[in-house]
Design goal:
Largest sheet: 7 strands, mixed
Shape: globular
Number of strands: 11
Number of helices: 0
Structural class: mainly beta
Radius of gyration: 13 Å
Distance between the termini: 40 Å
Strand content: over 45%
């Protein structure tokens, strides 16, 4: 059974940083491309970042380029999202996803002064 559990969200001031983690189990983590997706209440899902199975290729939506870094630890089945210089518009529930078929429960990021 595929299981994805996010953690690391919280309240941060604009300009601050957070590191999100996603613990994966129940599938061959090292074989799959992984994604981070976010959602603001009342709005649609927004894809944030993607990483290849070997961690060598990454993609970002334009609004987070040069601020967010996706990474993975295949030895420990972990996915990460380092978020720096956070802005008000980054506030959302963040989800990790295996491909786009399996999702975690999400972790909330709040940006407030």
């Amino acid at each position: 059974q595929v299981q994805l559990v996010e953690s690391g969200g919280g309240l941060v001031q604009p300009g601050g940083s957070l590191r999100l983690s996603c613990a994966a189990s129940g599938f061959s983590f090292s074989s799959g491309w992984m994604n981070w997706v976010r959602q603001v209440p009342g709005e649609g899902l927004e894809w944030v970042s993607q990483i290849s199975s070997d961690g060598q290729t990454t993609y970002y939506t334009d609004s987070v380029k040069d601020r967010f870094t996706i990474s993975r630890d295949n030895a420990n089945d972990m996915l990460y999202l380092q978020m720096n210089n956070l802005k008000f518009e980054d506030a959302a529930a963040y989800y990790c996803a295996f491909g786009f078929n399996f999702w975690g429960q999400g972790t909330q990021v709040t940006v407030s002064s």
